Amino acid sequence: MWVCSLACHGSFNLDEETRRSWYNPEAVLQDLHAGMVFMDIGCGDGFFSILAAKKVGQSGKVYAVDVDTQAIEKLIREAKAQGLTNITAKVAAAEETVFCKACADCILYSMVLHDFGDPAKVLKNARDMVKPSGVLVDLDWKKEGMPFGPNEKIRFSEAEASGLLQGAGFQIDSIKDAGAYHYVIIAKPTVP
Ligand SMILES: C[S@@+](CC[C@H](N)C(=O)[O-])C[C@H]1O[C@@H](n2cnc3c(N)ncnc32)[C@H](O)[C@@H]1O
């Protein structure tokens, strides 16, 4: 089921079957390994946070943030139900969130970059949080007309998203399709 308010800010409810019909979530996290630090920014109810927590294991750590209190509460309940103790989840704006500096191996934005009020500020925070060896993963909707998903007008094309990433101090490593409706950009911090 896809449920989204008009501009796709806030209200969000996506079941796993629908998500998996669009793209392979494991492929999005393919470079995530045990012991790594993963961040899920604008995490919603934490579909990727839960997946990542299992991949990074007890020696790793997941940080998740969203402005939606109910979504974070759902994530915390699910983590508890699955016995996952390596997730720190908080209700906050991504624009105001720096979990730790130069500490993240992987920072994910899943279908969310276009939702932030100030994406440049959010990405500046990512630049502060990512390790020199870390990566940023931007999974988002292709800027095309579709019978579902956010309004085409608010979507970022691959070129627009790449420009924002470069402006925040990242270099583009790859841009690939993730199924028919989404793209995934992998970016690495630019060496100063
Ligand atoms: C389309 S949903 C994507 C959720 C999640 N990334 C996923 O793939 O399931 C967008 C999410 O961004 C959150 N959001 C919007 N603006 C935000 C902000 N400024 N800071 C943090 N989260 C925000 C919303 O509350 C919502 O949960």
Features:
binds S-adenosylmethionine, two-stranded antiparallel ribbon, 7-stranded mixed beta sheet, alpha/beta, disordered N terminus, 192 residues
Structural summary, described in words:
By secondary structure, this protein is α/β, with parallel strands linked by helices. The protein has a single domain (2-189), classed as Vaccinia Virus protein VP39 (Rossmann fold, 3-Layer(aba) Sandwich). Helices cover 29% and strands 30% of the residues. The strands form two sheets. It has a seven-stranded mixed beta sheet with strand order 5-4-3-6-7-9-8, sandwiched between helices. Strands 1-2 form a two-stranded antiparallel ribbon. Mean pLDDT is 93; it is low at 1-11. The protein binds S-adenosylmethionine. Residues 8-10, 12, 14, 42-44, 47-48, 65-68, 71, 93-95, 110-112, 115-117 line the site of S-adenosylmethionine.
